[in-house]
Structure formats: C-alpha cells, structure tokens
Amino acid sequence: MNNFWLKIKKPILALAPMAGITDSAFREICRKHGADVVYSEMASVSALFYKPQKTLELVKFNKVERPYVVQLFGKDPAHFAKATKIISDPSLALPLVKRRGQIPDGIDINFGCPAKKVFGHGSGCVLMMQKKLAREIISAVCENTKLPVSIKIRAGVGDPKAGLLKNSQSPALGISALDFIKNTADLPYSAIMIHGRTYEGGFSGPVDFKIVEKIKKMFPQKIVLANGGINSAEEAVKILQDYPLLDGLGIARGAWGRPWIFEEIKTPLPSSPILGRGDGGEGEGCKKFDFPHIKKIMLLHAKLIHENKGARGLFEIRKHMSWYVKGFPRASELRRKLVMANSLKEIKEILS
Ligand SMILES: Cc1cc2nc3c(=O)[nH]c(=O)nc-3n(C[C@H](O)[C@H](O)[C@H](O)COP(=O)(O)O)c2cc1C
Q1: Which one, of 278, 257, 284, 299, lies nearest residue 21 by Cα?
Q2: Domain limits of the chain?
Q3: pLDDT digits (tens, 9 = 90+) for 46-82
Q4: CATH code reported for the domain at 4-266
C-alpha cells in the first residue's frame, strides 16, 4: 500500500473536511499555501451506491491537490463497500464521469458530523455509539481499497446529562473518543482526526486536546491529528508545543479567508516581514501576508472556482471573498462590491 500518511513530514497540517467549502478550488489554494493534505466535502455513500454521477463530480480533483482524501458518510456497510470500490478503482468510476485526477490518495470515514440531517439519519457522529456497526463500516472500507483509510471522530458523544439524544434512534449510551478507538484500533486504518469537542459541544467552546494526545500515546501506530478551534498560526504553534506527541493538526474554519494559515504555521520566524491583519497581533512571530499578496490569492481562487463550476462558482466564491477582505482598509465597501460581482472580469477590476 502506498500510504502517503507515513511520508508526510510532521507536524502534518491538514485542511479538514467542510461541506460547501472544501471544493477543488479551495483545496488547491490551501495546498499551494502549505496544507500537507486536503479533505473533500463529505460525500454520501448511498448516493454513490444508487446514483454515483453527481457525487463523483463533487469529489473530483486536480493532481496538484494531492495528497487528497475523499470523505464518505452514511450508515450502511454495503453502501460503504461499494462507494469505496467506486472511489478507489478508476475502471469503475471513469465510465460514470470524466474525472480529472483519477483515484484519490486516501479515504476517510465521517464519524463526527452532528448536523441534524446527517445525525438524525443515523450517520456521522451518532455512529460513534454503535460499536458493532462502526466496526463493520470501517472493515467494509478497509477491505475494499488499497488506499490508506482514515476516520474523523469527536471527543465523545452521548453525554446523558445533555439529553440531546432522546429523539435519535440510537441507544442513549455515551462513548468517548478513547473508547471508540479502543473498540476499533485493531482494524487497519491509518489515521484519525479528532475534533476535540463532544457532539454536545457543537462547534464552539473548549477543545480537549489532552484526550487527543492521550489517544496518540495509547495507539502510537495510528497517525493522530487534533482538530477544533485553531484559528491562527500562533494558536497552532502553541498547541503543537503544548501537546508534542500529536502527529499534526486539522484546520477547518481557521482557513476561511486565510488559506495561507498552513504556510504561516510552517514559518514561525520572528524575523519574517510582519504585515499582520490583527488576528495574532503584529509582531507576534508567524509569517503574515500583505494585502496585495492576498488580492492575488483571491483572484486565483476566483479563477479556479470559475473554471471548475462556471457561474455557480462565482456565486459560491462570494462567501470566500467576504472572509478574505476582513481587516482590509475599507473592507465593508470592498465586500459589498465583491459580493455583487457577476463575472471574473468584474472581480479582477475590483481587486486591481
Ligand atoms: C461549514 C462546515 C462544514 C463542515 N463539513 C464537514 C464535513 O463535511 N465532514 C466532517 O467530517 N466535518 C465537517 N465539518 C467539521 C470540521 O471539519 C471541523 O471538525 C470543525 O469545524 C471544527 O474545526 P474548526 O474549529 O477548525 O472549524 C464542517 C464544519 C463546518 C463549519
């Protein structure tokens, strides 16, 4: 097996999966700016099982994005098995849709999503509590691919005190990330990304990096990445210093409007030109990007998304544009113009 996870220099910096965000254009920009590995948006195994064309479009990629991991979600091991085969075998996928990048470098399983439509459907982090089914799903993926498999989990799910599970079909038995890994570690998956918040913790509040480091200590054969609340290069560097056993970090919202965060983390040079945008404070050590440089990145992002998705791409780029201009002089005026732009030419003129 060509396991890219074992070849990346540590600390590994990953762009974490985000539905509606981590499309091919954004992944390419993040790879260009220091992300060591990038994840797709989550792709439904049932969609791949019944009607694969649209989902194969969602996960297609450019070679420059490698190493690139496709994330799957669902609840049926048979669907996971077939989806894995389709994703891993170009002879199955190619007749269905013209794919630019052939097969990806890895496959990830979503055990972390708390979104109502995923969780309520019995997929995502509700599966952490279903010990037997979780094992069956991981086995179904591992047995049907030569690609390295990874999993994405939360710090835990099912805190009985929170009472949030009463409407789900699952038994209301909580499980911690540590117990989940104890239950599955013998299976041949390579890497784990742990969002250090429980299901009940949602997307804000404290992140438990200690549990992530403890898991690495107990299961040194697995690559372990910590995820959650890492919004600046300075925070990332501090976490890596405080939890030295970690193999790396997964960054999601911290890359919104600053896909170069990975590059900043890799160049914590006190002597680098500090042209800060405020977040980490000027002069705090990590490399910063100035506005002309950011404008170039914005334009490239717009070009790539336009190439990939046409007019729909120009609509989707609007959220990225508003994130990019945060901290710019006259940001609100610039934001207003950019979100109204209807062509690449207009975006270019606004940014010139
Ligand atoms: C808009 C959005 C979409 C997300 N989509 C996914 C997804 O498709 N798969 C997944 O495993 N996690 C998904 N996540 C969770 C992130 O990967 C990450 O675990 C979470 O945002 C915490 O990291 P952060 O604090 O760096 O944002 C999503 C998060 C956001 C904000």
Answers
A1: 257
A2: 4-266, 291-351
A3: 999 998 889 998 999 999 999 999 999 999 999 999 9
A4: 3.20.20.70
Q: Is 157 in the pocket of ligand 1 (CB under 6 A)?
A: no
Distance separating alpha carbons of residues 328 and 306, to the nearest angstrom: 24
Q: Is 42 in the pocket of ligand 1 (CB under 6 A)?
A: yes
Measure 240 CA to ligand 1 centroid, in angstroms. 20
The per-residue pLDDT for range 96-142, each reduced to its tens digit, is: 555 554 799 999 999 998 888 887 788 999 999 999 999 999 999 99
253 Cβ partners below 8 Å, 6+ apart?
A: 18, 231
Q: Specify the pTM.
A: 0.92
Q: How far apart are CA 59 and CA 176, in angstroms?
A: 30
154-210 per-position pLDDT tens digit: 999 986 555 444 444 444 568 999 999 999 999 999 999 999 999 989 999 899 999
The residue whose CA is least distant from atom 21 of ligand 1 is 252
For a mutational test of ligand 1's pocket, the pick from 13, 18, 55, i.e. the residue with the most ligand atoms closer than 8 A to its C-beta, is 18
Question: Tokens for 142?
Answer: 């591992």
**What pLDDT score does 165 carry?**
46
